[in-house]
């Protein structure tokens, strides 16, 4: 193959830079809950590509100039974006319906134009279809340079807009008080998405480019609660997916670039989904099981303390396993002790929650956390003293509404 | 003219109409449930479904592929739910994650497997080949009464008719619970409607319509028909039953007008060749939606 | 037995309930969103033929309790009996009026169509909507004073009018137990009066009403019983004995304006301060 090495390096660099830009942009789109708008943008590029081709041919050119084609793509996706916004604002339709309508209609119109091009002359349109799924095979040196430069420029714009986008996606109102215009920042965000989409067309293809804007962002969200870090991580993952996907597909035949890039990103997403601490599935499942056990244990103990029947079979099993009740349901000494402890904790909580001065602490009541975990021993003693001296019970202070008794 | 029309144009027009209606009917409920893009997701994952079915059976035959596609649609919907619930990710992004990944997997499998000798490619999956569904045994309108000729109707037509009938039956039979649970899910649960099951059934029926239509006309019409006719109808009326009837009518208009424009439009303009009927049908449905958005009597919502 | 436990069992006689099953009986219900319980270990008995208010501060789990009872949201633990039977057997005897915010107001449907949804259990899947059904639906709309608005799209009605339509839908169900989620939230004074009149007439017909309620000042006027909750039950029983300053203090903590307390409980002087203990900052 002719100078595959150098071209591949260029393409991989471009894909990597583009991936970083896509990750960062996608992170903000995701935080603004607008991820799928990019799906409309990307599908809306097709008529632009086709029209640009027809236009260039009509001017007597060959019609394959990548810059020209991408320019057309950008223009028509801009039109698609405008239609999405118009439908959402001016009619009762939701954004999801607007996105679906734009992506299918623009794409359908693009297909019509492709068949028109087909009739212009045999073989002429060869190459346009690669925009559907992306292809780097046999890419021209000039095209590779366009992609690398485009990726770098998009990334640069992304870095420049990073701070305003963080502020707006975190708190649009506060950002407005700081002199930012959220609508304008949103527009910048969309412009970036549009740039990523357009430049990614040749490599990833218009059907899958949306994945590069979604997968790294969603994957990054699992690892952190901070917007800036989400963007950073998304950039890293996007760059990794872009570069390694481009290299992988160059190494083996029959490995189409776009799908490989997407699948690398999907693998990163899956890892994050399963293994991320706190937000990950594994961590979540463990936390849920522990929580469920706590709830049933506590409820079981309180039922024992109040001499009620333990209704739930899971609670009974837990109590039995912990040696707090015997198989025949009789409470053991240990069970009695723990039940008394739970009941006393509940009593302390209920007293605390009835006092205005306990409000700050009472807000942390969840039925599970023992009060001993939240206050120091001397505070606890003061609380117990207060309960004891208020011995007549809160009932004594109760007043009854007038006219009813 | 008559014989040519019956042989070459009538079957694709009928198939287009049936496909459009079969998608538009459930599309109404998807639209109202803010699940319009489920149609988008389903039609993307059809590709991996049929590729896997092909790899398992080793042949390009309709039923295994339809099953594969329907299976993929179910897997996709399940995965979307899992990603959304378990990963606490907003629905749009969850959908994007699942369908792009599955589509990428499908393309990769397709490229890796030896499918060069069979008619199975991405382009076909996207925009089908409506024009090729012709009825060679027809010699004129009288063929419609000729059992021998009828036996050679394109199988896609029969299949699409059966699916469209099933979809219509589903919507008609479950009309009340569908309407109630779409409007007020909590209330629907309290009166004992199995809301989750019903939602799943709606997705399965949509997938069935999508897969059958996809087989005949490609996935791009499928997405357009799920969304555009119901959305246009929504902008014209405030009654559910009326909306559904209008959407079916608009779907028919899009299919017929789109096919005719694609087939004869270029001739009128002096060109020789027809353009993609599937693409033109989607375009027409979009123009209708645009018209409804500009002039529909109920285009404004409560907020706007 | 602790004081709290004593307060929590206002209708204790298990023997009596065995003879005439209570409209609603909840045992050990815990519901959570994520890893903190929204409702913890709630027992609730609802007396027949009376109006009961579920009250408590914001985020105390009032609506959650109602929804989990009806199976709209899943519960982590707990059992529910309606008229002595599992929920699924007696759905026809329950009518639920959701919080207004939970509905898609842009849905293409008219006020009368919404009321007819209440007839679903009578009609089934394919039963024909007869003239009798339609006139029953109109009667229900009439009963809430909305007969003239039958043909309006639901989103075009005001908040109070929407609430009335929902109540009419519940009336069409002909239930024995009515469960309402904040029926008076965001409605105008005329609507509030119309709703309470309908609810009182339902009670006079011997039906049971359970409503999540947030306006403490109207509790004694509107309701017979209260169920006070702040994640776990605080007090329950007739307004006369359970709707006390202590119980409210206990449920609302420092979040209750003293002005409101004085207005509700004007007869007594300031409550005697107990032995102070250090203010705890969490």
TrEMBL record, chain A:
Compartments where found: Cell membrane
GO biological process, one term: response to zinc ion
Region annotated Disordered, chain positions: 385-405
Keywords assigned: Cell membrane, Membrane, Transmembrane, Transmembrane helix, Transport
This protein's name: Manganese/zinc/iron transport system permease protein
Main location: membrane
Gene3D superfamilies: ABC transporter involved in vitamin B12 uptake, BtuC
Pfam families hit by this protein: ABC-3 (PF00950)
Membrane topology: Multi-pass membrane protein
Protein origin, superkingdom: Bacteria
Family: Belongs to the ABC-3 integral membrane protein family.
Automatic annotation (TrEMBL), chain B:
Protein family (similarity comment): Belongs to the ABC-3 integral membrane protein family.
Protein name: Manganese/zinc/iron transport system permease protein
Statement: the UniProt record of this protein carries the keyword Membrane: yes
Membrane topology: Multi-pass membrane protein
Signal sequence bounds: none
Domain of life: Bacteria
UniProt subcellular location: Cell membrane
Any GO CC annotation of this UniProt entry: ATP-binding cassette (ABC) transporter complex
Transmembrane segments: 6-25, 37-56, 62-80, 92-110, 157-175, 187-210, 216-237, 244-262, 274-295
A GO BP annotation: response to zinc ion
Source species of the chain: Pseudooceanicola nitratireducens
Listed Pfam families: ABC-3
Key words of the record: Cell membrane, Membrane, Transmembrane, Transmembrane helix, Transport
Coiled coil: none
Cell membrane listed as a keyword: yes
TrEMBL record, chain C:
Entry similarity comment: Belongs to the ABC transporter superfamily.
Pfam family, one: ABC_tran
Domain of life: Bacteria
Nucleotide-binding found in the keyword field: yes
UniProtKB keywords: ATP-binding, Ion transport, Nucleotide-binding, Transport, Zinc, Zinc transport
Native source species: Pseudooceanicola nitratireducens
Keyword Cytoplasm found: no
Gene Ontology MF, one: ATP hydrolysis activity
GO annotation, biological process: zinc ion transport
Listed PROSITE patterns: ABC_TRANSPORTER_1, ABC_TRANSPORTER_2
InterPro entries, alphabetized: AAA+_ATPase (IPR003593), ABC_transporter-like_ATP-bd (IPR003439), ABC_transporter-like_CS (IPR017871), Metal_Ion_Import_ABC (IPR050153), P-loop_NTPase (IPR027417)
Protein name: Manganese/zinc/iron transport system ATP-binding protein
Start and end residues of each ABC transporter domain: 24-256
């Amino acid at each position: 193959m002719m100078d595959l090495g150098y071209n591949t390096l260029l393409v991989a660099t471009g894909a990597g830079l583009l991936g970083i830009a896509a990750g960062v942009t996608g992170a903000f789109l995701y935080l603004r809950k607008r991820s799928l708008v990019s799906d409309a943008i990307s599908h809306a590029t097709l008529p632009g590509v086709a029209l640009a081709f027809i236009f260039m041919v009509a001017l007597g050119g060959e019609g394959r100039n990548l810059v020209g084609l991408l320019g057309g793509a950008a223009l028509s996706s801009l039109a698609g974006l405008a239609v999405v916004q118009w439908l959402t604002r001016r009619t009762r339709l939701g954004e999801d319906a607007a996105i679906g309508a734009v992506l299918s209609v623009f794409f359908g119109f693009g297909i019509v134009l492709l068949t028109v091009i087909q009739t212009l002359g045999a073989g002429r349109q060869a190459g346009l279809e690669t925009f559907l799924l992306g292809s780097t095979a046999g890419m021209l040196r000039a095209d590779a340079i366009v992609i690398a430069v485009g990726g770098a420029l998009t990334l640069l714009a992304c870095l420049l807009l990073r701070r305003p986008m963080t502020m707006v996606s975190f708190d649009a109102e506060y950002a407005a008080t700081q002199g930012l215009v959220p609508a304008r920042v949103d527009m910048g965000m969309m412009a970036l998405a549009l740039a990523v989409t357009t430049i990614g067309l040749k490599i990833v293809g218009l059907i899958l480019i949306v994945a590069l804007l979604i997968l790294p962002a969603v994957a990054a969200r699992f690892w952190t609660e901070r917007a800036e870090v989400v963007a950073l991580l998304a950039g890293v993952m996007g760059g990794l997916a872009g570069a390694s996907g481009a290299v992988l597909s160059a190494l083996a035949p029959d490995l189409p670039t776009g799908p490989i890039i997407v699948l690398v990103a999907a693998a990163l997403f899956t890892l994050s989904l399963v293994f991320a601490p706190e937000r990950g599935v594994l961590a979540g499942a463990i936390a849920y099981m522990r929580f469920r056990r706590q709830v049933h244990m506590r409820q079981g103990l309180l039922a024992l303390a109040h001499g009620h029947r333990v209704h739930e079979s899971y609670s009974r099993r837990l109590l039995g396993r912990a040696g707090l009740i015997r198989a025949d349901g009789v409470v053991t000494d240990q069970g009695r002790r723990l039940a008394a402890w739970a009941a006393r904790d509940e009593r302390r909580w209920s007293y605390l929650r009835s006092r205005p001065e306990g409000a700050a602490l009472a807000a942390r009541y969840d039925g599970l956390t023992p009060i001993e975990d939240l206050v120091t021993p001397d505070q606890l003693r003061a609380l117990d003293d207060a309960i004891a001296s208020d011995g007549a019970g809160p009932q004594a202070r109760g007043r009854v509404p007038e006219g009813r008794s | 003219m008559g014989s040519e029309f019956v042989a070459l144009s009538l079957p694709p027009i009928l198939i287009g109409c049936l496909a459009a209606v079969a998608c538009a009917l459930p599309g109404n409920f998807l639209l109202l449930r803010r699940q319009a893009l489920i149609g988008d997701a389903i039609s993307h994952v059809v590709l991996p479904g049929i590729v896997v079915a092909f790899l398992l059976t080793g042949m390009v035959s309709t039923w295994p592929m339809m099953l594969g596609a329907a299976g993929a649609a179910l897997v996709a919907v399940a995965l979307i739910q899992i990603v959304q619930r378990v990963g606490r990710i907003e629905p749009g992004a969850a959908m994007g994650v699942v369908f792009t990944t599955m589509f990428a997997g499908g393309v990769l499998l397709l490229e890796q497997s030896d499918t060069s000798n069979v008619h199975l490619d991405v382009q076909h999956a996207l925009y089908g080949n409506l024009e090729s569904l012709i009825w060679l045994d027809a010699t004129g309108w009288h063929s419609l009464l000729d059992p021998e000729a009828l036996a050679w109707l394109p199988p896609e037509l029969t299949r699409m008719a059966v699916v469209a009938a099933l979809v219509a039956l589903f919507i008609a039979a479950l009309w009340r619970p569908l309407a109630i649970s779409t409007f007020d899910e909590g209330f629907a649960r309290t009166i004992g409607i199995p809301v989750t099951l019903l939602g799943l059934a709606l997705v399965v029926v949509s997938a069935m319509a999508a897969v059958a239509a996809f087989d005949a006309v490609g996935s791009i019409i499928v997405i357009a028909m799920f969304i555009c006719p119901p959305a246009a109808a929504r902008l014209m009326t405030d009654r559910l039953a009326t909306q559904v009837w209008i959407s079916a009518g608009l779907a028919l208009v899009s299919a017929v007008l789109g096919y005719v424009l694609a087939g004869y439009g270029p001739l009128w303009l002096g060109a020789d060749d027809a353009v993609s009927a599937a693409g033109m049908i989607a375009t027409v449905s979009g123009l209708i939606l645009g018209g409804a958005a500009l002039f529909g009597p109920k285009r404004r919502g409560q907020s706007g | 037995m602790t004081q709290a436990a004593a307060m929590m069992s206002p209708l204790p006689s298990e023997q009596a309930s065995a003879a005439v099953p209570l409209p609603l009986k909840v045992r050990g219900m815990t519901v959570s969103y994520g890893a903190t319980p929204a409702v913890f270990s709630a027992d609730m008995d609802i007396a027949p033929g009376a109006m009961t208010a579920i009250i408590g501060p914001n985020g105390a789990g009032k609506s959650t309790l109602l929804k989990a009872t009806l199976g709209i949201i899943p519960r982590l633990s707990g059992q529910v009996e309606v008229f002595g039977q599992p929920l699924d057997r007696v759905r026809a005897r329950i009518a639920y009026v959701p919080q207004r915010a939970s509905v898609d107001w842009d849905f293409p449907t008219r006020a009368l169509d919404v009321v007819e949804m209440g007839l679903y259990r009578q009609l089934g899947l394919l039963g024909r909507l007869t003239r009798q059904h339609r006139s029953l639906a109109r009667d229900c709309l009439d009963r809430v004073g909305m007969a003239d608005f039958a043909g309006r799209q639901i989103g075009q009605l005001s908040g109070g009018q929407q609430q009335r339509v929902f109540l009419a839908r519940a009336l069409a169900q002909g239930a024995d137990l009515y469960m309402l989620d904040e029926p008076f939230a965001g409605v105008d004074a005329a609507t509030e009066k119309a709703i309470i009149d309908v609810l009182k007439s339902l009670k006079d017909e011997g039906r049971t009403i359970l409503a999540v309620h947030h306006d403490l000042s109207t509790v004694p006027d509107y309701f017979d019983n209260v169920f006070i909750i702040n994640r776990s039950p605080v007090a329950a029983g007739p307004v006369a004995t359970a709707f006390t300053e202590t119980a409210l203090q206990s449920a609302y903590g420092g979040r209750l304006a003293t002005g409101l307390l004085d207005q509700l409980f004007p007869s007594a002087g300031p409550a005697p301060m107990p032995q102070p203990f250090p203010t705890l900052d969490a």
